[in-house]
Amino acid sequence: MSGSPPAGRNFLACPALTGHGVRPEEDPDVQLMLAVKRDDAAAFEALFRKHIAPVVGFALPFVGSRAQAEEVAQEAFAQVYRTRHRYQPHAKFTTWLYRIVRNLCLSELRRAENRSARVSVSDRTNPEENARPVTDQQTQNQEDALLAREGISRMQTTLLKLPEQQRSALMLARVEGLSYQEVAQVLECSVSAVKSLIHRATMTIRDELRDMR
Amino acid sequence: MWCWRVRRDLTALADGELSPRRGAAVRGHLEQCSDCRALWQETQRAVQLQQRLMPGAFEVLDLAVDPMLREVRLRLDDDGSGQMRRWFWHPAVITAAAAVGLMMVSVLGLFNPLLVAVGLEEPPEEVAQRPELFRDYPLFEHLEALENFDALQSGSGSATGAEANE
Fold first, then answer.
1. Residues 6+ apart with CB under 8 A from B71
2. Structural domains in chain B (count)
3. Inter-chain residue contact B68 with A73, CB threshold 8 Å
4. CB–CB of A17/A25 below 8 Å?
5. 8 Å CB contact of B55 and A213
6. In 3-state terms, what secondary structure has residue A157?
7. In chain A, what residues touch B12 (CB-CB under 8 Å)?
8. CB–CB of A73/A56 below 8 Å?
9. What is d(CA A24, CA B60) in angstroms, rounded to the nearest whole number?
10. Which of A44, A41, A21 is nearest to A90 (CA)?
11. CATH architecture of the domain with residue range A24-117+137-208
């Protein structure tokens, strides 16, 4: 694990990975993005279809409603297309994409705070709407499915209580599967800071869900 | 090795994010320290629980992908026309367009009657031969009379602007 900090504010030119992450040239999304750079509309559509759902899911805890999360995701992809000619494949495509998404989420959050329209945690998302059993329902009995649903719901509530940076770092690492170095590139901080953020978030969730196994 | 230094690395160890050297040092300590070993097992369980439950926590189902894609394309189209509008109203573009327009009007000679009427250009030779036909006309009648010079000239010397119009 390299301790070198990521590039500064220039999110279009992330440093090449030196850790165990996928190298840019091995990332199929980078190849698609290079095609988008050549104005290939089909490649843009392919990237959109592949990433739109995870991006909406990532934005959801920030903005609070599904409609707003979809709005942020659409704007993120519009930005991807607008800035396609400046894209440099120095890192995984998702590190670039999620940096755009996170910046848009933070802007949205700031606007919401300015409006003083923050709603309570329980109102921000609807667990019934978004949660699903983790395991295949056909092979589980109803009790297991209910327990899994409850677990997801509690996880959701706990995640919403985390500070923004901790939640972002944890979701990028656990849900999107980014390495610590890639998370550092998205959050524009050092790898050791990411290590600390994820550790603290993990400990908080461990304490909150201590009774679950 | 101090326990607190090991404990803050346990999550990274569970995520496979420690360097091989650091990972070996932490594992070595865990073999010797039962407190840290207990914490390590707890951390591993916590990480596994998160890996199992977190993907479902904010997973979005039934996303209307096609309408969303259409909306993005519409936005990008709007950007294009918006840029065109902004480009068109740029002062330099307006100035250049005005200059080209003036040049065209000048080249086509559309200014000539006006320049003659205001005295900035000599009138045509025909007008010089019969200046009395135009002398008393105000500007716009003067222009009209110039257009109908032949009719005026072929008429009587006392022809008026009204007769010229007829």
1. A74
2. 2
3. yes
4. no
5. no
6. helix
7. 1, 180, 195, 198-199
8. yes
9. 27
10. A21
11. Up-down Bundle (1.20)
B91 in a structural domain: no
**Partner-chain contact B42 A195, CB within 8 Å:** no
**Collapsed DSSP state (helix, strand, coil) of residue A145:** helix
In a domain, B49, yes or no: yes
Structural domain containing residue B28: 3-57
DSSP state of A14: P
ipTM for the assembly: 0.71
Residues of A in contact with B52 (CB under 8 A): 134
Residue B104 lies in a domain: no
Is there a contact between B117 and B137 (Cβ–Cβ < 8 Å)?
A: no
Asked if the structure places residue B150 within a domain, the reply is yes
- Along the 166 residues of chain B, how does pLDDT read in single tens digits? 688 889 999 999 999 999 999 999 999 999 999 999 999 999 999 999 998 888 888 888 888 999 999 999 998 887 766 565 666 677 888 889 899 998 888 887 777 777 776 777 776 676 667 767 666 666 666 677 777 777 776 765 444 444 444 4
pTM exceeds 0.80, yes or no? no
Asked if A56 lies within 8 A of B51 by C-beta distance, the reply is: no
